[in-house]
Each structure stands twice: as structure tokens, then as C-alpha cells.
């Protein structure tokens, strides 16, 4: 009996190793972390909205730190402390002050990071050419626009009556797009979609993502958002478009920086931005759809 058990375990481990080798990541860790993040998201959205501020603030802060660190690795001196502080401040500003607060926080954050970098020039070790200085400023601006400003749309949605359902719907749909594209591309992918930017992405994977977003998008729109099915079609198509653009945009950044993952903080995933790349632009699209159909 013991010998049979050991043989079965060895067979299972060998199968898992083959799957992970083909997938290129630790699927068990990826699944466990994904479920944990999903549970925290659901709890923060559906139980007490203010909890979402803590959840979103933590994600925004960690992700801003990641991207600033990656840019520093690539040669851009983006100060991390003011970057994280400015990014996190956007979350409560968007929730309590609305769109005006989000815009003000974003612009103030860009100015704060730029001022910090300017003051750093006093130190001889931080002095650079004018060109390098403006590239550093551009890097700091990129972080503030890409992460807290885009994430702020999800916070704006959450603050609306029934907005938490829209946030849940668009995130689930984007996750479905990622899973559909990943599984289909892994098993049937043949034709590269953007080989110079993201060699792993295929047109077959995109097709799988489209199917997944249509099924999930329509179901969520009808049963969670209580809207007509045709709104779900628009919702799903919009999410697959923005998710793909977000994924490719992050891949382009990583390619330019010469890195595979933004960080290694999430085993099986890479970094926080590697999980949020599709969600960030989709938050802005979901905000627009909410005002059109909500």
C-alpha cells in the first residue's frame, strides 16, 4: 500500500513538473495567491466599502514601489518614498472627493515627486545632465499616471451607489479574459500576436479570451448588474480590448527595461503590476460604461 502511494505521489509530482515547465510558472502558488487576493477583494467590496480603501491603497502602494524600483533598475532615478506616498494618497482622495479629488491628487503627486527629485540635485551624488533629469521626471510621471490615476477609476466606481458590483464585474471579467487567453494560448497557440513585445501571446489565446469575456461578461451583466444581455456583449468586448492593451503595455515596459517580471513578490505571478496590468486600463473603461449604462 505504501509503495503504491509513493508511486502515485511521484507520478503526480512528475505531472505537475511537466505542467509547470510548459506554463513557465508555479501554478499551485499562482492559484493560491490568486484565490487569496480574490477573497480579500470580495470581502472589502461587499461587506464594508471603506475596507476597499485599505485593500486598494495597499495594492497601489506596493505596485507604485515595484514600478519605481524597476525604473531605477533601468537607469531612471525615480524617488520611491514620495512616489509611494503620492500614489496612496490618490485612493482616499478619489473615494471621498470624487473625480475632482482624483485629478488634484494625481497632479499634486506628479508635482511632489518632481519637486523631490529636483531637491535631490543638491547632493553631488544625485546630479545628472538636463536630459537625464527630465527622463527621471518622465519616469516619475509615468508611475503616477499608470498606477494611482488609473486605479482611481475603480475607487470612484466603488464610491457610487451599486458601484461595488461594477468593480466586481469588471475585475472578474478581466480575470476571465486572462484565464481564457492563457489556457487557450498554452494549448492551441500557434500564431504570435506581438512577438517583439510579448512573445508568449498568440491570436489563438486572444480568441479564447474573447470567448471567455463574452460568456462571463453577459452572465455578470444580466445577473449581477441587472442590465440587458447586449450590454454584456459591449462590456465583454470592452474588457478584452482594454485588458489586452494593458497587458501589452506592461510587456513593452518590461522589454525596454530588460526584465521578465516587475518583481518576484508574488510567487507564480511575478509582481503586483504583473497581475494588475490588465485591470488598470479596464478600470477606466468600466467607469465610462457605468456612466453610459449604469
Question: Explain this structure to me?
Answer:
The termini are far apart. This protein has helices spanning 2-23, 27-46, 50-73, 80-120, 130-159, 163-188, 203-223, 229-257, 272-276, 279-293; strands at residues 192-194, 198-202. The radius of gyration is 21 Å and the shape is globular. A two-stranded antiparallel ribbon has the order 1-2. The protein has 294 residues and is mainly alpha-helical. Helices cover 79% and strands 3% of the residues. The longest helix is centred in the middle third of the chain and has 41 residues, at 80-120. It has 2 domains: 49-159, no CATH class; 161-294, no CATH class. The chain contains 10 helices and 2 strands; from the N terminus they run H-H-H-H-H-H-E-E-H-H-H-H.
- Describe the sheet with the most strands: 2 strands, antiparallel
Provide the number of structural domains.
2
Largest sheet: spatial strand order? 1-2
Secondary-structure content class: mainly alpha
**Low-confidence parts, pLDDT < 50 over ≥5 residues?**
none
**Strand portion:** under 5%
Supply database-style keywords:
294 residues; mainly alpha; 2 domains; two-stranded antiparallel sheet; 10 helices; 2 strands
Compose a concise summary of this entry:
With 294 residues, this protein is an all-alpha fold. Helices cover 79% and strands 3% of the residues. The protein folds into two domains: 49-159, no CATH class; 161-294, no CATH class.
Amino acid at each position: 500500500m505504501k509503495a503504491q502511494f509513493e508511486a502515485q505521489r511521484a507520478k503526480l509530482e512528475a505531472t505537475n513538473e511537466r505542467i509547470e515547465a510548459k506554463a513557465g510558472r508555479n501554478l499551485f502558488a499562482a492559484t493560491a495567491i490568486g484565490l487569496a487576493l480574490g477573497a480579500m477583494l470580495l470581502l472589502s467590496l461587499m461587506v464594508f466599502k471603506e475596507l476597499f480603501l485599505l485593500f486598494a491603497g495597499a495594492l497601489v502602494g506596493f505596485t507604485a514601489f515595484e514600478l519605481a524600483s524597476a525604473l531605477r533598475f533601468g537607469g531612471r532615478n525615480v524617488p520611491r518614498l514620495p512616489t509611494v506616498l503620492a500614489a496612496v494618497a490618490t485612493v482616499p482622495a478619489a473615494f471621498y472627493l470624487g473625480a475632482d479629488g482624483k485629478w488634484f491628487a494625481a497632479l499634486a503627486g506628479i508635482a511632489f515627486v518632481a519637486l523631490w527629485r529636483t531637491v535631490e540635485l543638491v547632493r553631488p551624488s544625485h546630479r545628472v545632465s538636463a536630459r537625464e533629469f527630465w527622463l527621471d521626471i518622465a519616469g516619475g510621471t509615468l508611475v503616477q499616471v499608470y498606477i494611482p490615476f488609473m486605479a482611481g477609476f475603480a475607487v470612484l466606481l466603488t464610491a457610487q451607489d451599486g458601484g461595488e458590483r461594477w468593480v466586481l464585474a469588471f475585475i472578474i471579467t478581466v480575470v476571465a479574459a486572462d484565464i481564457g487567453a492563457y489556457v487557450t494560448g498554452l494549448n492551441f497557440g500557434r500564431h504570435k500576436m506581438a512577438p517583439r513585445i510579448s512573445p508568449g501571446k498568440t491570436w489563438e489565446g486572444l480568441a479564447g479570451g474573447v470567448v471567455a469575456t463574452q460568456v462571463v461578461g453577459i452572465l455578470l451583466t444580466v445577473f449581477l448588474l441587472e442590465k440587458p444581455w447586449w450590454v454584456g456583449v459591449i462590456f465583454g468586448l470592452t474588457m478584452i480590448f482594454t485588458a489586452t492593451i494593458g497587458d501589452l503595455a506592461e510587456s513593452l515596459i518590461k522589454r525596454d527595461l530588460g526584465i521578465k517580471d516587475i518583481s518576484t513578490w508574488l510567487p507564480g505571478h511575478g509582481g503586483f503590476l504583473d497581475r494588475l496590468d490588465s485591470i488598470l486600463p479596464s478600470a477606466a473603461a468600466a467607469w465610462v460604461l457605468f456612466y453610459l449604462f449604469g
